[in-house]
Design brief:
single chain, mainly alpha, Leucine-rich Repeat Variant, two-stranded antiparallel ribbon, 57% helix
Length: 327
Amino acid sequence: MSERDVQIQDHPEGQGPPSASGANSNLWGLVVAPAGIVIAIMVVGALFGALTGSESSLDENLELVVHGGKNQSTQALFNLARQASENQRAHAQRLAGGDVELPWPMAVGFPQRVRDAAGELDEDEHETRLVLAVLLSTLGEPEGSELLRGFLELGDSEDPDQSLRMRAIQNLGILGDSAATEAVIGFLDHDEHVLRLAAAGALSQLPGEGVGAALEAALGDGVLDVRATAALSASKLDPPIDGAGPLLRDLTGTEIYSAEREQDPQRFTRARDVSQFRVLAVTALGRLALAEDRAFLESLREDSDLLVAEAAMKVLETWGGDVESGQ
């Protein structure tokens, strides 16, 4: 495969990479990103910054990750993460019935070479191991999920900013790894709210007993981002949790975000973010399909935010006349 010149920046222009623990981050937006997008590339961007260079094949980058010099290894790890992300998007489209080729074909024996590379890493090379774990998972290799679950056992000394555990939780959610469900539920009680936040988001896609009860309890979390994410996740369960309704209704308005901004002027400062979150809440109410919300959603059709008004109209069109109380 010929090399391609690439310039990759995985965070908005003019901004730094996302922080796992920054007090002023609007973290809710991070967790509600569409499922099926591998976020390992975000890990690499956050740890090493956006890089510029030429990208080679999967095998070539893997070789440089393990045996290249420091700069070569860093560049190759970033490229490998991006390739894994592109391949997983294509894989998700295949699962949905699309006729899509993997943008980065794999040579015979590549999965075994990734396993071997992961085994050669030093114990403290957590960042590289995380990317290789995600890569293995995109290849359908069970070792990928196994390695990701191992990150959930890290302590604060190994993961002081919680970013490794946060990304592992998110990726396990994307994978729908039922073996991780119990451990992820446990993170809803963690002292660090970024880990509670990641767990609340991941549980919308993790099967197993106790998920519904855990998310319902998280609706009372002291941090808005966590309880908002729990409400969105609760609306995605089958059946959804009706108890998420009151919070979701609050999240369709603007007052709840204004109140947060009064406490911290750096929070919810961008109108487009607030608009996005309001639309997500409207869509989540649509999944609950409670008859008592019909009049409320009718009122949102006149909202000054056209995206919110459009979302409400779409929900009402989807409902038709079939909504029943308590469904």
